[in-house]
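Retro notes (design track)

What went well: tokenization of the new backbones is finally stable.
What didn't: we kept losing track of which sequence belonged to which structure.
Fix going forward: every design gets posted as structure first, then sequence, in one message. First example under the new rule, 293 residues:
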């Protein structure tokens, strides 16, 4: 299996410079739009995954909110083979619903109450649901009902050494009534041959689903290492067991690399097993259950 690296430079106002390590692609590019995925249950689970977007990139206009953002191809000189360059990049991190009004994300995605107040959680930030660009500036608009505010950081941990715990439990400003919290592993560990899906917003793009991830190491008490097609801004994404449909953990760290090929930034190929893998905070060690209704 091949392993591919991706480099992304963040130039938009909504992206935070300390939002975690860049990520990579493992093997062939297994990122897909939700409508391209055959597993309908994984697609249904994706409805409960929200983009974290800066309030500076959201402008309320009537019953909709306009998304102010560049396209991926507007940021740096990507090679023509890099996909999704025509798509907008508004998300700064990923997150998912774990209770009626409780969201999980990575601890480095929302560090302070100020960040809590300056960001929103946007559901259905998907290319196939954004519709047509509107208004004088030709921007996408999303229903206000899909946008939730951060009411409070209930609990959070971010460690640079030791167990490297990296998670945040966020209370939303209201209950989410039109989609269900994701199911999750309550004890034990996954089988070593489990297939994993990653659902989130790679590079800030509209929602993508990366299938066929694999477990590399399951030794650490607080996180496991997987091979997942993950990128910067995937931090906070749920990693779902494709067999049980349970969340196994929260994507938090991964490989970082830069490649400039003939004057443009491109994907780089490595041999199998030669790089560090992607770190996923183990769901069974995050104390969110005490905050569930």
């Amino acid at each position: 299996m091949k392993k591919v690296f991706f480099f992304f430079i963040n130039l938009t106002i909504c992206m935070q410079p300390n939002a975690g390590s860049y990520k990579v692609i493992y093997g062939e590019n297994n990122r897909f739009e939700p409508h391209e995925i055959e597993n309908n249950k994984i697609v249904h689970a994706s409805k409960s995954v929200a983009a974290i977007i800066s309030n500076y990139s959201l402008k309320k206009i009537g019953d909709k909110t306009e998304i102010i953002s560049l396209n991926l191809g507007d940021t740096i000189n990507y090679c023509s083979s890099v996909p999704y360059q025509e798509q907008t990049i508004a998300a700064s991190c990923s997150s998912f619903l774990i209770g009626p009004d409780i969201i999980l994300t990575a601890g480095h995605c929302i560090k302070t109450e100020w960040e809590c107040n300056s960001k929103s959680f946007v559901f259905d930030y998907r290319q196939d649901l954004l519709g047509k660009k509107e208004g004088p500036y030709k921007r996408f608009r999303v229903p206000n009902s899909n946008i939730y505010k951060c009411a409070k950081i209930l609990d959070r941990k971010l460690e640079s050494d030791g167990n490297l715990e990296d998670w945040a439990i966020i209370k939303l400003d209201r209950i989410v009534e039109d989609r269900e919290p994701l199911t999750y592993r309550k004890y034990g560990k996954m089988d070593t041959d489990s297939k994993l899906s990653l659902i989130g917003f790679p590079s800030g793009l509209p929602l993508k689903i990366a299938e066929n991830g694999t477990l590399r190491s399951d030794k650490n008490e607080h996180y496991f290492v997987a091979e997942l097609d993950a990128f910067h801004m995937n931090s906070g994404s749920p990693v779902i067991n494709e067999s049980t449909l349970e969340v196994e953990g929260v994507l938090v760290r991964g490989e970082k690399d830069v490649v400039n090929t003939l004057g443009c930034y491109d994907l780089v190929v490595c041999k199998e097993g030669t790089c560090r893998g992607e770190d996923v905070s183990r769901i069974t060690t995050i104390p969110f259950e005490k905050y569930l209704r």
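Added context from the reviewer: The first strand starts at residue 3 and ends at 5.
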